[in-house]
Design a protein that fits this description.
The chain has 564 residues and is mainly α. The chain is built from 26 helices and five strands. It is globular, with a radius of gyration of 26 Å. It is found in: Endoplasmic reticulum membrane.
Length: 564
């Protein structure tokens, strides 16, 4: 007993250490840049709306093609930006709004919210006969939790809502028997909110809702009480949908009236009139766009097995592989059981195999994965909500967590790759440029700045902390332009005679710096931001073992010498 207590204390201490790492690394902050959506589906939009900063509005948030609800961005990034804006206006903080707070404040809210996962695992473990502290260690030690769940992705919110839904539908009495879920209204609210956040949430919600429906049907004595549960769910779902539709319609209609935050008293009736004329249901627009194969191809097409064979392994490593192996074993066992039942004339009693804990958890894991695999555009982050059923399954029914050393090494490498290295120079580069743009010298003498980014992920303009009225700063995103196009643009900036006091900076990875040196221009200052790993322009392996390894893993900020 004392040995078990000692192991329990050790597990609790290790979880607390990993929880502190999650929060501390967020504040540090993490330099890795996972995907443009972590900025352009929430913080970038809210920085423009609430802080009146120069930003880039993605097409999903334009009034001509509204495909994303504004409710969750307002509740997350919007709230944090409103807080730091209020602190600055009340003179409680003279420079609250800067690149650090613009980056970290929304992330910190998501990081705090990520502990909903830990709470859900602790609550769910007894219901699924899983070891709560083993499951918590697998969760807290996963680089998916440390990196993806501390970022401002809609997929992160999807994972948190999926966790809450699993908690609501999975409840057991103290004797281990199933308890009747009494939270039908909350289930309806969370399902609808998840659908408006990302319509793919229905793929994750399918198995929990079927599980809940089965428990309700089996536990109720009369059809009237069953209908009562379903009616509560539907009514609350409809009410939640109306709230989202009204909020989105108001927001996107107000964009047509130029500015949501400067509505005059007399124009409120115009807004209400337009609300009646144009009802906006963002999930339907999202589905209409994404069900078109041509549109998905613009974002990249992948084989249908990418989630199953690549993305699952990339995110969860050996746990995904072990789940596949267990799934095949259980399927084989189920088929043999079904054949035996039929041969002995016992009808479909073999279906009871699926009501056991482990197979049901596997269905919670593989059914959403299968539905998401129907779409040709498959990114790893789409699967991050599945970490919850996976860690519960991996520690359920006294299953030993195998390959412990492999799991640790895999997650350390994943955290370093995605938390530090991947596009890791872009955010420190923006921090550096923000300080340059707001230096006393720059503020005292108005200068024109041109910031040209090439072969990097799209730079979030909000981190430069430039007001919309400051038109003397221009950001040009060249994306993955060819050498000829890049040189033409840089040479045009160098020979611009209409601007006397112009400063041009070119930001480019070290792996493709040769492209810019081939242009007919010269540079007078250079800054190397380290580390930066571009998978689109990967480093040359031989050069990594030479004196040029820092250049291969760096991002250059080059200042154009216009005098030359």
């Amino acid at each position: 007993a004392s040995a078990g207590a000692g192991i329990g204390m050790w597990a609790k201490g290790l979880w607390a250490l990993l929880a502190a790492l999650r929060a501390g690394w967020c504040l540090l902050p993490q330099a890795g840049y996972l995907h443009p959506d972590e900025f352009f589906q929430s913080p970038e939009v809210m920085a423009g709306d609430i802080l009146n900063l120069q930003v880039y509005y993605p097409w999903e948030f334009l009034s001509t093609s509204p495909c994303r609800t504004v409710v969750f961005p307002l509740m997350t990034s919007g709230v944090t930006y409103w807080v730091i804006k209020s602190l600055q206006q009340l003179d409680l903080c003279s420079s609250c709004i800067n690149s650090y707070t613009l980056l970290v404040s929304p992330r910190l809210l998501f990081t705090v919210s990520s502990f909903i996962l830990d709470y859900s695992v602790y609550r769910l473990a007894p219901s699924w006969e899983a070891d709560p502290w083993k499951a918590l260690l697998l969760l807290a030690g996963s680089y998916v939790t440390l990196v993806f769940y501390t970022r401002t992705f809609t997929n992160t919110l999807e994972g948190l809502l999926f966790a809450l839904l699993m908690v609501l539908v999975s409840s057991r009495k103290s004797d281990g028997n199933l308890a009747v879920p009494t939270s039908s209204p909350l289930i309806g609210i969370i399902t609808t909110a998840g659908f408006f956040n990302r319509p793919t949430f229905l793929a994750f919600a399918l198995m929990p809702l079927l599980y809940w429906a089965g428990v309700i049907a089996n536990s109720q004595k009369s059809i009237k009480s069953v209908i009562n549960h379903f009616l509560k769910l539907v009514l609350c779902a409809c009410f939640t949908a109306i709230v989202f539709i009204m909020a989105d319609t108001f927001y996107f209609t107000s964009m047509d009236l130029d500015n949501l935050y400067s509505i005059k008293k007399g124009s409120l009736f115009n807004v209400l009139g337009q609300l009646n004329e144009k009802i906006i249901v963002t999930p339907f627009n999202f589905l209409r766009y994404n069900l078109n194969p041509h549109n998905l191809a613009l974002h990249g097409s992948h084989p249908r097995v990418t989630h199953f064979a690549v993305n699952g392994v990339m995110l969860f490593g050996i746990l995904h592989i072990l789940a596949i192996g267990a799934g095949f074993k259980m399927l084989k066992k189920y088929i043999h059981h079904l054949i035996w039942a039929r041969s002995h004339c016992q009808g479909s009693s073999g279906l009871l195999v699926l009501s056991e804990g482990n197979p049901t958890l596997l269905l919670f894991y593989f059914v959403p994965l299968a539905f998401l695999s129907l779409f040709s555009h498959q990114e790893p982050r789409f699967l991050i909500p599945l970490i919850l059923p996976l860690v519960l399954f991996s520690t359920s029914q006294h299953r030993d967590v195998k390959w412990k050393h492999v799991i640790v090494i895999f997650n350390v490498l994943g955290a370093l790759l995605f938390g530090c290295l991947h596009q890791g120079g872009v955010i420190p580069c923006l921090f550096h440029l923000e300080q340059l743009l707001h230096s006393p010298e720059s503020l005292n003498h108005t200068r024109h700045y041109t910031l040209l980014f090439a072969h990097t992920y799209m730079p979030p303009r909000s981190l430069l902390n430039i007001k919309k009225r400051d038109t003397y700063i221009e950001v040009i995103d060249m994306a993955g332009s060819e050498e000829e196009t890049l040189c033409r643009t840089v040479e045009q900036q160098a020979s611009n005679s209409t601007c006397n006091d112009c400063h041009v900076f070119v930001v480019i990875p070290g792996t493709v710096r040769a492209m810019i040196t081939n242009c007919d221009v010269s540079f007078k200052n250079e800054t190397l931001v380290f580390p930066h790993l571009s998978m689109e322009d990967p480093p040359q392996i031989p050069l990594l073992f030479s004196g040029k390894w820092r250049s291969q893993l760096g991002l250059y900020i080059l200042q154009l010498d216009r005098d030359q």
